[in-house]
């Protein structure tokens, strides 16, 4: 992935994470203020209700379990009462605002930090009138609870305690009795009060980021899979339809290494010739997956243009035009291709071909002999147009003959010892396979039999390749079969009509 793509993905993730955090922060802050406010109400009632019980019924005893220091004077009780009421009012106000007003996430963070700081400052001011051993102890509990509730990161958790520790030091210097060592020990240990909340916030934030990354990756993967399925449908729509009847039968089997790949076959059969002439181009682009499929899309458009301009374009011309296109547009990106171009003419019983670095194809004659179609030129895109020579050739291709072509994924299949099937292995498969059409009796040949039998070459070869291969495929595999059925001719085509195959004999 390029830096631009990585940065874009990182930016999108950050924006999505911040948006999710804003929504989560709003809900959690409202929940925290409500729950912790209720806890404060209960504590408020217990403390001051306990003080009333103690003073009314047990004036001579200090009931420590009620949390009400007997030494407090009326003014000190009033101070603590006002401080507690002010904190509860603050929590109630924040809860009402967060529930009813849409606030940006940065503001929500400031509000949560400010709430903890405000509670701590109120406690410090009350401490100046009602000294306690640790004025920050109550707010440390609030800080820990906030870290449990709120989606703080480490810095957001540290911020309120830094402010309160500074304020605590200032208040201690100004108002603490200088002769009490306990006060200074408490001041020295006060930074430890913020550690639990900071640790909790850091752990929660780290785990939340990892969980969100997994969630985002799962969502992205789902989107990618759906897009890939759509891309596969579009990619497969470029492949030609099989032809199972008529003077020329055409069939192929394609197994991409991934969902889509870089192997492709293009077939052109002009209707004006009654299906007796056909051009087929088999292409194998370097690479795999989506990049190779995108290249195939471009080559398909170029082939459409070539045959739209000349429906009977010779294989040599097609190969040279493809080489020129790839050299000018794709080779600069280190993208090349091999291709086999063939043109079959039933009127002259010939097969003309040109091959640019493609694996050898085979023509199996009706008598069982096998002829090899070797490469006639370099890999496409390597040489500029003036230096590229297609060197087309031709051979006889009569009724009962079959052409078997494939991409390198078939012959490069390796067994458990690492041995490739190779060209010799492919030739052996073609030579030893039972002919699906050539060995039939002319009397029993029919259109239904042809349609049922078409594709048996490709299926048999793919099964043999899979049997030879050990493990998963490491390349795309495409096998193409072109046959001339025995005894099939084509009747005259009416104007605007479709050719009607028939069987002789």
Please tell me about this protein's structure:
This protein is an alpha+beta fold. It folds into two domains: 3-218, no CATH class; 238-503, Phosphatase 2c, domain 1 (4-Layer Sandwich). The chain is 52% helix and 13% strand. The protein contains 13 helices and twelve strands. Strands 1-10-9-6-7 form a five-stranded antiparallel beta sheet. Helix 1 runs parallel beside helix 3 and helix 2 packs antiparallel against helix 3 (105-129). The longest helix has 55 residues, at 3-57. The radius of gyration is 41 Å and the shape is rod-shaped. The protein starts with a helix and ends with a strand.
Number of strands: 12
Report the major sheet: 5 strands, antiparallel
Q: How many domains make up the 3D coordinates?
A: 2
Instruction: Provide the CATH top-level class of the largest domain.
Output: Alpha Beta
What is the C-alpha radius of gyration, as a whole number of Å?
A: 41 Å
> Remind me, CATH topology of the largest domain?
Phosphatase 2c, domain 1
| The CATH superfamily title of the largest domain | PPM-type phosphatase domain
State the strand order across the main sheet.
Answer: 1-10-9-6-7
What percentage of residues falls in helices of 4 or more residues? 40-55%
Strand content: 5-15%
**Could you say which structural class the secondary elements and strand pairing correspond to?**
alpha+beta
């Amino acid at each position: 992935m390029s830096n631009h793509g990585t940065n874009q993905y990182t930016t999108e993730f950050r924006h999505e994470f911040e948006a999710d955090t804003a929504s989560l922060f709003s809900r959690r802050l409202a929940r925290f203020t409500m729950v912790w406010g209720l806890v404060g109400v209960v504590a408020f009632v217990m403390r001051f209700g306990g003080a009333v019980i103690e003073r009314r019924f047990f004036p001579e005893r200090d009931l420590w379990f009620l949390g009400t220091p007997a030494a407090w004077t009326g003014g000190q009780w009033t101070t603590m009462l006002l401080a507690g009421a002010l904190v509860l009012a603050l929590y109630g106000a924040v809860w009402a605002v967060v529930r009813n007003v849409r606030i940006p996430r940065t503001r929500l963070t400031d509000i949560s930090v400010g709430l903890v700081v405000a509670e701590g400052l109120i406690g410090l001011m009350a401490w100046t009138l009602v000294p306690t051993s640790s004025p920050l102890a109550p707010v440390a509990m609030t800080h820990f609870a906030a870290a449990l509730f709120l989606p703080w990161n480490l810095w957001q958790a540290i911020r309120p305690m830094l402010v309160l520790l500074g304020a605590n030091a200032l208040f201690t210097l100004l108002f603490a009795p200088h002769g009490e060592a306990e006060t200074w020990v408490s001041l020295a240990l006060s930074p430890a009060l913020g550690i639990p909340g900071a640790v909790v916030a850091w752990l929660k934030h780290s785990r939340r980021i990892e969980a969100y990354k997994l969630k985002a990756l799962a969502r992205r993967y789902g989107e990618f899979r759906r897009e890939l399925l759509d891309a596969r449908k579009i990619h497969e729509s470029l492949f030609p339809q099989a032809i199972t009847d008529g003077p020329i039968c055409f069939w192929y089997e394609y197994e991409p290494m991934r969902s889509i790949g870089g192997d492709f076959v293009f077939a052109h059969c002009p209707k004006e010739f009654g299906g007796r002439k056909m051009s087929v181009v088999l292409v194998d682009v370097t690479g795999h997956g989506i990049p190779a499929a995108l290249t195939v899309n471009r080559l398909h458009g170029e082939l459409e243009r070539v045959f739209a301009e000349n429906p009977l374009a010779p294989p040599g011309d097609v190969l040279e035009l493809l080489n020129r296109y790839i050299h000018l547009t794709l080779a600069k990106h280190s993208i090349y291709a091999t291709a086999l171009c063939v043109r079959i003419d039933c009127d002259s019983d010939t097969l003309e071909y040109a091959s640019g670095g493609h694996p050898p194809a085979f023509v199996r004659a009706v008598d069982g002999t096998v002829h090899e179609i070797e490469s006639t030129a370099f890999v496409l895109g390597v040489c500029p147009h003036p230096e590229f020579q297609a060197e087309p050739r031709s051979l006889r291709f009569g009724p009962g003959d079959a052409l078997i072509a494939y991409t390198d994924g078939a012959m490069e299949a390796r067994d458990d010892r690492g041995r490739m099937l190779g060209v010799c292995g492919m030739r052996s498969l073609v030579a030893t396979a039972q002919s699906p059409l050539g060995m039939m009796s002319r009397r029993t040949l029919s259109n239904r039999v042809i349609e049922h039998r078409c594709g048996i070459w490709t299926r048999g070869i793919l099964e043999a390749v899979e049997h030879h291969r050990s493990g998963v495929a490491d390349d795309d595999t495409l096998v193409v079969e072109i046959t001339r059925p025995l005894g099939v001719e084509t009747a005259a085509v009416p104007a605007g009509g479709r050719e009607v195959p028939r069987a002789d004999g």
